[in-house]
Design goal:
Blueprint (H helix, E strand, L loop, with lengths): L3 E2 L2 E2 L25 H24 L6 H4 L6 H7 L25 H14 L3 H27 L4 H4 L2 H6 L6 H15 L3 H14 L7 H10 L3 H25 L1 H13 L7 H10 L6 H26 L9 H11 L12 H6 L4 H25 L11 H24 L24
Antiparallel strand pairs: 1-2
Helix pairs in contact: 1-5, 3-5, 4-5, 4-9, 5-8, 8-9, 9-11, 10-11, 11-12, 14-15, 15-18, 17-18
Length: 438
């Protein structure tokens, strides 16, 4: 029996490579383009995105340029909002009482900002670039990981217009890179590594924790409960290792992220806001009801989609459920911040490489971005020569994007099996017991 390492059973030195083995799913001969081309195209996307952001990075925001120039980035105000101008340590040192919210981000994201603020000093522009460099590197790593398993389909990520818009809007590319790393590690049957990366991703943004569900189900379905257990414990251990010191030493500050997200109302971009605004003329006022409704709708629709897919294609790889799970979460959650859309980009490459659906999503999502911030410009009183979008146009864009995402889930249900399929262990000619039928 081969030895067991952190990545799972080692493959015999002379066993034949298969699509299910630890080797990349797409061999070099089948990738059709080189990684250098992918990086070059990605650099072009990021350069375009930075050109869009430049007026806000170097200019004075008092003229309303984030809305009139559509160059908004959360990173610039985060230096002040998170009170990182001095030496304050997130969670451990109390926040000054202000109108804004401090310590509202998970541990890994908050301490990433603490690190970049220490490098940049009290300068918004330097702070932006310190974070932007990390985010650009995260985008490159994500593209590379996708390239190793799906070849040129990595361009669904590298050439996405929304990547240009959202790459440096907030810090979500950090958890995206970790979640993609966890997914690729799972596809390569390195379950402990997968769990660690997903746990770290959840310490930066909770959504990577959702991917643990289909990955664990996939291992159990492949009659490999030990691998499922290793993955769960690795994910939980990584998340606890990052969070526990701050939960013990700065409990009230550490809890702020959870209390803030529990009490915050439905965000502008959510379907909840559209429904409440149309029904009452204002946003959702019963936050507790929205929280319960979001949770119930999420569980219900995941179960429905899972069941339908299972009946249409009983043998489908359960890891691919990551795509509809993330879509349903975004549609049912009370918060759909603009940059959350980058969560889905790697999954178009992995589980739904449908160009028409991808382009429809990109167009709809960019429409939400444009109408959202131009409407904010009107709300802020920036009418001087600026034709902003009315609220109605913003809400229509939200509904269109939701409809496109529903069609994407339907397309995923009807699609064939994605490549690669990781749930069958590689053949081991030294011990036939390693092979587990699916």
């Amino acid at each position: 029996m081969p030895g067991y390492d952190a990545g799972g059973p080692s493959r015999p030195r002379h066993s034949p490579a298969t699509p299910d083995a630890d080797d990349p799913a797409v061999p070099p001969s089948g990738r059709t383009i080189g990684i250098g081309v992918v990086f070059l195209l990605l650099a072009g996307t990021l350069a375009i995105g930075h050109a869009i952001k430049t007026p806000c990075v170097h200019g004075d925001w008092s003229d309303g340029r984030p809305f009139t120039w559509l160059c908004h980035t959360d990173i610039i105000p985060l230096l002040g909002n998170e009170q990182l101008y001095g030496d304050r340590l997130p969670y451990l040192d109390p926040c000054e009482q202000t109108e804004g919210t401090c310590d509202e981000y998970p541990v890994l994201t908050s301490w990433t900002m603490r690190l970049t603020a220490s490098v940049a000093g009290p300068h918004n522009t330097r702070f932006f670039y310190a974070n932007a460099i990390l985010l650009w590197l995260a985008a490159m790593w994500t593209a590379y990981l996708l390239y190793t398993v799906v070849g040129r389909r990595a361009l669904y990520f590298a050439l996405a217009p929304t990547l240009a818009i959202y790459a440096t809007l907030n810090l979500d590319l950090l958890p995206v890179a970790l979640a993609t790393g966890g997914t690729v590690a799972y596809l390569r049957r390195r379950d402990v590594t997968s769990g660690i990366l997903l746990g770290l991703g959840a310490a930066a943004k909770l959504y990577p924790a959702l991917l643990v569900i289909p990955f664990v189900v996939g291992r159990f379905r492949g009659h490999e409960p030990d691998r499922a257990i290793y993955l769960v414990w690795a994910a939980a251990g990584a998340w606890i290792a990052v969070n526990l010191p701050f939960a013990l030493a700065g409990t009230s500050g550490w809890l702020e992220f959870f209390s803030y997200n529990t009490s915050r109302p439905a965000d502008w971009d959510s379907l909840w806001f559209v429904v409440c605004e149309q029904a009452t003329g204002m946003g959702c006022t019963n936050t507790r009801l929205v929280n319960l409704g979001s949770f119930a709708l999420f569980l219900g629709w995941v179960a429905i989609v899972w069941t339908i897919k299972g009946r249409r294609q009983p043998g489908f790889p359960r890891w691919a459920l990551g795509f509809p799970i993330l879509v349903i979460f975004l549609l049912t959650n009370k918060v759909y911040s603009p940059q959350y859309s980058v969560w889905l980009l790697p999954w178009f490459a992995l589980a739904l490489p449908n160009l028409r659906l991808f382009l429809a999503f990109e167009a709809a999502d960019m429409a939400v971005f444009v109408t959202r911030f131009s409407w904010f410009g009107l709300l802020g009183g920036h009418h001087n020569g600026f034709a902003g979008s009315p609220l109605g146009a913003f809400e229509v864009a939200i509904l269109v994007r939701a409809a496109v995402l529903v069609v994407c889930v339907i397309g995923w249900i009807r699609a064939g099996e994605p490549i690669p399929r990781p749930e069958r262990p590689p053949p081991d000619r030294t011990d036939a017991r390693v092979e587990v039928p699916v």
